User: Fold these one by one.
Assistant:
Number 1:
Amino acid sequence: MKLHPHDRLILALDVSSVEEARTTVQRLGDSVGIYKIGYQLGYAGGLALSDELIRAGKRVFLDLKLHDIGNTVAKGVESVVRLGASFLTVHAYPQTMKAAHEAAAGSGLKILAVTVLTSYDDADLFAAGYELGVSELVAARAEQARDIGIDGLVCSGEETSMLRPLVGAGMLLVTPGIRPAGAASADQKRVMTPTAAIAAGADYLVVGRPILEAADPQAAADSIVAEIARARPE
Ligand code: C5P
């Protein structure tokens, strides 16, 4: 798929109020292609804001990580389709993925599956009752997502290079934990530069604090877009 480099940059709108989010979007304009709304802003008026952004021609990623009985997931996805969002996350459980995939079929909404949360290690999975370690479970869920027809996966930079050969070119890989060279990693333990993530096979980069907390957010976004353009010229 041919995309402008700025279409590959997803800004995580991790702010606590709609007002702050509006200011950020106004400052960044078209420097970023997609605005991601997660729990923090979503439960603070972000869903109404997403409607406003979509009407203004912006693309919106709802990072709501849905997981419920199939019927409930399907009804939720139908509402997100009506809203006109471009991306929605679900947890990578087969029933959940199937329900979301079927409910989004034929719409412009792309479903992204979260395989295993990156805050989980093998011991956390064991404590939650799983017998597989993180890398086995990530691989198994990625294959299930691919077989169900899910559009893409959210995965760390490290997972990206493992998953690209496993799922093939057809699935979108969306990678958070991006830090431009020299930026503080904050609480992200495994970080990659935009260049490294694109080289590892990422289609989209999710960036929050390196842009939100920059003295000049637009310059920070533009420099990431320039890095994407160099890493993936097309
Ligand atoms: O501020 P920062 O660039 O670390 O933000 C990364 C964004 O990506 C946050 O919205 C976070 O919730 C999200 N994310 C992540 N790691 C994952 C999945 C999503 O950091 N594995």
Number 2:
Amino acid sequence: MKMVYFFDEGDGKNKKLLGGKGAGLCEMTRIKLPVPPGFTITTDVCKSYYQNGKTIPKSLWPEVKKNITKLERKTGKKWNSDTNPLLVSVRSGAAISMPGMMDTILNLGLNEDTVTALTKKTDNPRFAWDSYRRFVQLFGKVVFGVDDKKFDHVLEEAKKKQGVHADSDLNEQSLREIVSQYKQICQSHTGKPFPMHPDEQLQLAVRAVFNSWMGERALVYRDKNHITKDIADGTAINIVTMAFGNMGNDSATGVVFTRNPGDGTNKIFGEYLVNAQGEDVVAGVRTPKPVDEMQKEMPKSYQLLVSTCKKLEKHYKEPQDIEFTIEQGKFYLLQTRSAKMNAAGMIKTSVDMVKEKLVTKERALLRLQPDQLEQLLHKTIDYEQAKQYKKVAKGIAASPGAASGVAVFDVKRAVSMGENGAKVILVREETKPEDVPAFFTSVGILTSRGGKTSHAAVVARGMGKPCIVGCSEMKINSEAKQATVGSAVIHEGDAITIDGSQGDVYSGQVPTIEPQMTNDFKTILDWAQKEKKLGIRANADTPDGAQLARKYGAHGIGLCRTERMFNATDRLGLFVDLIMAKSLEERKQRLEKLQELQKSDFIQILKVMEGYKVTIRLLDPPLHEFLPNPEELINKMHRLEKQGSQQEIEETRIILARAKELAEINPMMGHRGVRVGITYPEIYEMQIRAVFEAAAELAKQKVNAYPQIMIPQVSNITELNHIKSIYNKVKAEAEAKHHMKIRINFGTMLEVVRGCLTSHELAETAEFFSFGTNDLTQAVFSFSREDAEGKFLPEYIEKEILERNPFQTLDVNGVGSLVKLAVANGRRIKPGLEIGVCGEHGGDPNSIKFFHGAGASYVSASPHRIPIAIVAAAQAKLAEKSTKTKKKK
Ligand code: ADP
Ligand code: MG
Ligand code: MG
């Protein structure tokens, strides 16, 4: 097993083996970009370390030494030299980037002798001792696990003593004292003297980096981001010759995106610090300068930076996120990776790169993460109304979108409150990787320190959550659970609103508005529409929903739930009256009223969707869902018995009796869907008639309407035929009444296992199928969704019994097999049969990929997920294309 790759031996392809950072360094070396010489210890070594009870393979060390010798040759420096010492960084880096999750040590190789050598060699004692104090600090933290605060305290005291503010103003004397105190801290922590020999330092560092792979922070991060072993298994270690950004005012370090990750603008974007080393920028100890200023301050280096960025983009065909260091005017690249951008940035760069002929349209579509597009459908502040609210502070706009919620100053509280459904805005001085769990449970993040590349900003952007950083006028006291801005005080639980697009913090809950679609977004959707094969329809039950879906590009409605129309406040009373009706006569009277209402609903929706099919599903839930539950009614009775009128008591008693009568042990499998249609045929008859009447009316108005009627919960062809005969009767009556032919497709949902298994029988009557994958998943697993998600599913996922929640992403092996079988059997009878999908899976990119492959005609998704579905469908088609061409070759 080859355990170590010198940067000129590897390339960018094998990220699994070399880690993303290592592969990037190798690739940049290969294309002759200025990378300091170095080498990578593979992830295989890390795996073997864990497989063998945390022992490092014996043969690793000789290989490392060989590569150190090679480094010496390349740099002309010497390991542990007392004239020209070689110093390195030891950096973790897994296949997938996990920002800030694992550890890095800089300036390794320094000790009392080499620091003297470095001083003499550079004639710059401040630099040498600054490097040394950084090394001891990082080493103490990473290898020994010393609490950072102890070091910070020493540093603060030293600055006070010398009377300076910036770390970079500390003089040699102060730095010498700091180093000696740092070492003292380490020694009292471990009980041993601080390791002097670079060999020993390196061995300890390698072990520490391997250990950080299984550290709490890294574990949580991988868990939350669904990074499984087949995505990243173990970390690689990169040993890189130091480039010194802290050698004076002609030296600097920085991080840059080759394009603006917030909006995609084609201009480098980032920050830098003069006379500093890498970790300073990220940690936010000094506020870095925007990279624009470098144009004036270090024009040559700036030009080099810009041209390097162009080269990188040309090579990677993807905007990059890089780290660089300038050592006395000499420019070095220390890292590159594909830039993480928010959705707006991704969309704009996709469109721009096609225009620039950097990438093809296909690549431009494939690089998008469909799920991320939801951000673009994010809310913004209603700036008109916002004028009536008090702006309490302004910070740096770090991640766009608006969020209102309650201020919470503590990470644990933010997690528990968020999990209990509160809308939490996490307010902190700064955030650290261990705070990440709270990001998941908060709607927005606000910090008083840090810049656009601070931890909070990076993580929030990645998650698409609104974020403001560097809000320095806000003084946060997390102990006291409050923040003050001038004389104003914000307490825990107070409502605040953050505008991550402008950086404004408001007190109170500011109204927000729905987003607008940019031209670039429209362009992408247009390309995707042309590429995809699957049809995209919407789940919509109101004219507004239908309008929005159509605007987003839905071609039709795949699921119009008629019961939602009964739930509107003005209708519920009518429907309850219907349920309470004592005779068929009474029931029919009430149905007539409902029929008028449904007809007018259908007319409006069909008009909005003119030219496209609208699938109307007849009543699905059990009747008791429309009544208050018996427990509530019993409580009400108790209350009324004390103070209510006789009439009220009587009414409640009757409803209670009916509710008890209708109550079911297991409603999911109870009296619902087609079963209600068969026992109360007048309800389905009314609904079918409403559809026919709407169609007739629209035909007269010359509106192209294509309603279809869909029957839920069908398990058996006889059920379907039973309803079909009602349909036939209503159709004949309506056609006679209106003197016209009215064509309305009649189809069935497939959401019951038996229905799927007998789809060839159902296809004799059904003119279309639509998979109700929510119920079907429940049925195939025998899980009731609410119980599963509320009780055991999270633990199933944690214990990896199930990889994913099958209610979010279709279970391909189980539910998917049944889907394929039902599709094949149905199309055997009717080859062109329209087969759709109307469960929530219709808006999930992975599931969409499956349905594309399974030959579905369309998927139906909620209006806000339509753009996601369109792009995902295009990607499914493109992926299929590329596997086909690969096979041909
Ligand atoms: P992370 O994954 O947390 O970004 P890195 O390994 O990239 O950790 O390093 C942390 C910081 O140290 C970065 O700013 C990086 O550029 C800097 N750095 C790492 N190695 C070197 C080196 N050999 N010379 C100069 N700076 C370095
Ligand atoms: Mg880095
Ligand atoms: Mg269903």
